């Protein structure tokens, strides 16, 4: 049944080729699906669902194959899906979208990582510099006088009752 559906869909590019003139024509696609149903002897809605599942599985398997090839993993190629070769006619019409990640690229290699002795030295150096840092300046020791501070003068603030705002 599945082989018949694949062969029947392959002969009707308006069902899979997005560059085809009739790809967006719902009426023509309905006629094509009726033809697939007649060729296979299976109900039209079953053919549509089966094709969608086959297409999605093929794209998932293809993406997985590209990922394992790109990642440089030591594992050999896994077992191929049994319909991969038959559905390869979809390759020119399908572009895999790039995946995105919220993680930035990792640039560190094993040579870049510090050894435990280097980490201990850096930790000791950090503790030494923290102990020698000057104390933070307090507001009382600040060189800004009251006349340089923006805002209402202290006399205006003292004469304004609480809860009343100046305009």
UniProtKB/TrEMBL annotation:
Stored InterPro entries: MADF-dom, TF_Adf1
Polar residues: compositionally biased ranges: 140-152
Pfam families reported in the protein's UniProt record: MADF_DNA_bdg
Domain MADF intervals: 4-95
Ranges annotated as biased composition (Basic and acidic residues): 120-134
Stretch list, region Disordered: 95-167
PROSITE patterns for this protein: MADF
Name of the featured protein: MADF domain-containing protein
């Amino acid at each position: 049944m599945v082989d018949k559906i694949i062969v029947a869909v392959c002969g009707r590019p308006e069902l899979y080729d997005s560059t085809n003139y009739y790809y967006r024509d719902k009426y023509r696609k309905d006629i094509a699906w009726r033809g697939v149903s007649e060729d296979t002897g299976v109900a039209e809605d079953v053919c549509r669902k089966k094709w969608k599942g086959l297409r999605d599985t093929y794209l998932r398997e293809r993406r997985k194959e590209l990922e394992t090839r790109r990642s440089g993993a030591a594992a050999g190629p896994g077992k191929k899906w049994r319909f991969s070769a038959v559905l390869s006619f979809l390759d020119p019409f399908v572009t895999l979208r790039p995946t995105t990640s919220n993680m930035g690229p990792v640039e560190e290699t094993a040579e870049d990582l510090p050894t435990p002795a280097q980490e201990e030295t850096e930790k000791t150096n950090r503790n030494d510099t923290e102990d020698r840092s000057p104390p933070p300046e307090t507001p009382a020791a600040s060189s800004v006088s009251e006349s340089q501070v923006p805002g209402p003068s202290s006399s205006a603030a003292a004469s304004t009752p609480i809860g009343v705002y100046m305009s």
